[in-house]
């Protein structure tokens, strides 16, 4: 039975060849086959290019994170700044918004992310890491009610603290009650010991209104965050280099 089947297949093949060459060309059949093959080949090529594009995108994001971290500067304070020694910029994406003023990123301890390190984007300070799992981490935004960031005025160099005001932005409190302060002044991070949780020179925001608080020990103002905290996507995490 099997032998008969093989013979029938061979006979059919010979018949097709003879018909194609001597009687009726089978161009439509070959064309159909070529179309199917071409479609599959095109799909495979598209998938290969897609994977290649994704890898190039990841590479560009890593370079972007490094450059962004390296360009940190206090703008007008007259001091040099940048990524602290033995630190690097790590690219990550915001993948979720948690309760309160918190977001989740797609990088964790496996990539070197630790608690109490700086998170920023191309516009300015975003917040700090408050929890790090193996592959994800939680970021507390600077607008969180519990947030407190040491600050420096980019123009005058006056020092103060920026606190979070959920739903409103930020409040700046300068230590000197007679310090110069005006709408439009820019505020940057003062920096923390060991660069944790905040590195120096990252834009925090811009003064939008001067407050008048009777009996206040210092000058206060409302500040608009430099980073669009409600539309976060790609961010940079400043992480310590692994010990060698």
UniProtKB/TrEMBL annotation:
A Pfam family the protein falls into: MreC
Domain Rod shape-determining protein MreC beta-barrel core: 101-238
UniProtKB keywords: Cell shape
Domain of life of the source: Bacteria
Family: Belongs to the MreC family.
Protein's recorded name: Cell shape-determining protein MreC
């Amino acid at each position: 039975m099997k032998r008969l089947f093989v013979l029938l297949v061979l006979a059919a093949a010979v018949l097709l060849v003879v018909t194609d060459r001597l009687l009726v060309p089978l161009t439509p059949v070959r064309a159909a086959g070529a179309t199917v093959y071409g479609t599959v080949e095109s799909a495979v090529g598209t998938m290969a290019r897609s994977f290649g594009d994704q890898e190039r995108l990841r590479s560009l994001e890593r370079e972007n994170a490094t450059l962004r971290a390296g360009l940190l500067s206090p703008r007008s304070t007259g001091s040099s700044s940048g990524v602290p020694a033995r630190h690097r910029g790590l690219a990550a994406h915001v993948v979720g918004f948690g309760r309160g003023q918190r977001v989740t990123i797609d990088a964790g301890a496996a990539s070197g992310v630790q608690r109490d390190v700086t998170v920023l984007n191309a516009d300015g300070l975003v917040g700090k890491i408050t929890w790090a799992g193996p592959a994800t981490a939680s970021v507390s935004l600077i607008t969180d009610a519990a947030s407190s960031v040491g600050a420096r005025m980019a123009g005058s160099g006056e020092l103060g603290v920026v606190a979070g005001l959920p739903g409103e932005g930020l409040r700046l409190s300068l230590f000197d009650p007679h310090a110069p302060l005006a709408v439009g002044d820019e505020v940057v991070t003062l920096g923390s010991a060991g660069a944790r949780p905040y590195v120096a020179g990252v834009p925090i925001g811009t003064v939008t209104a001067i407050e008048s608080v009777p009996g206040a020990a210092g000058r206060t103002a409302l500040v608009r965050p430099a980073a669009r905290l409600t539309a976060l996507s790609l961010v940079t995490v400043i992480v310590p280099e692994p010990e060698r």
